[in-house]
Amino acid sequence: MALTLDTPMRNAIADAVDTQVGTTATMEFQTSGDVEVATLTLANPAFGAASTGVITLGGVPLSDTNATGGVMAKFRIKSAGTTSQIAGTVSTSGADINFAGGVTVGATDTVTLTAFTITCPAS
Description:
By secondary structure, the protein is mainly beta. It has one helix spanning 7-21, and strands spanning 26-30, 36-41, 54-56, 62-64, 70-71, 74-79, 83-91, 97-98, 104-105, 111-113, 117-119. It has one domain (7-119).
């Protein structure tokens, strides 16, 4: 029999992710070589309360209006701007975060994130 997490447990786990992210978090978009391309300051709290195991990033859209520039390949959510808590991929499709307009960012360009969720699955 497969292990299944009921909704209250999924919500508790998802809310714990938000707690771990903390109150002064950032989302940093990076090149494949770990070079910062753009950084977003997340809301406090970063995510809303969990519902059916899903937390949704608050305060969106979020923008960096003065990006460093480069080709985005991944992201990291950092607590207090330094401790990596969550990492994922960035692309135009099939990634954890998809930018339909492309992943190449010029220096001083604006990078805007319109939505982001994290799901604690039932199994």
